[in-house]
Write a structure and sequence with these properties.
By secondary structure, this protein is α+β, with helices and mostly antiparallel strands. It has helices spanning 2-12, 38-53, 74-92, and strands at residues 18-23, 29-35, 63-70, 94-104, 108-117, 127-128, 136-138, 141-149. A hairpin with a 2-residue loop joins strand 7 and strand 8. It is built from three helices and eight strands; from the N terminus they run H-E-E-H-E-H-E-E-E-E-E.
Length: 150
């Protein structure tokens, strides 16, 4: 029943105005992410990591998953969320590219994620790092730079 509920959510999600871009980094891979709300920032980071890791459009399989993470602060929560997505990619080959945030505070996250089994990995991401990670608020909302160890 849980998977049916998640699959229905996957079929009805409309993406918000989120954003990410790859930025240069000396030894690793990094993305700059932004969103008008903290929720959008987290989704932008997840989409950015998915884009770096695999071709998110090259599959017809559908996978639905609930993800829940708790941490001490927003930066640690972001790293834990991305690390969980990375774990699922490594364990199952699943890359998620559609998200519905069900709960989000600076210390807790519950999200419904939809995706597919990746046919090809672009970059083997070893870990999500805390390198220069700081979530900041600006006039447009929130932004951060996330660095991945490759």
């Amino acid at each position: 029943m849980k998977y049916l509920k998640e699959a229905l959510i996957c079929a009805t999600i409309v993406l918000m105005n989120t954003g990410f871009e790859e930025v240069s980094h000396t030894a690793d891979i990094a993305i700059h992410v932004w969103g008008s709300e903290l929720e959008e920032l987290f989704i932008s980071a997840a989409l950015g990591m998915a884009y770096l890791a695999a071709d998110v459009t090259d599959s017809d399989s559908n996978v639905a998953q609930s993800i829940e993470v708790t941490a001490d602060d927003a930066e640690t929560l972001l790293v834990a969320f991305l690390a969980e997505l990375l774990y699922l990619l490594e364990r199952d080959g699943t890359v998620f590219d559609v998200f519905q945030m069900r709960e989000l505070s600076t210390t807790h996250l519950l999200v419904s994620a939809c995706g597919h089994i990746a046919k090809e990995i672009r970059h083997h991401i070893k870990a999500v790092t805390f390198n220069d990670l700081e979530i900041t608020r600006n006039a447009q909302g929130f932004e951060a730079t996330v660095v991945f160890d490759v």
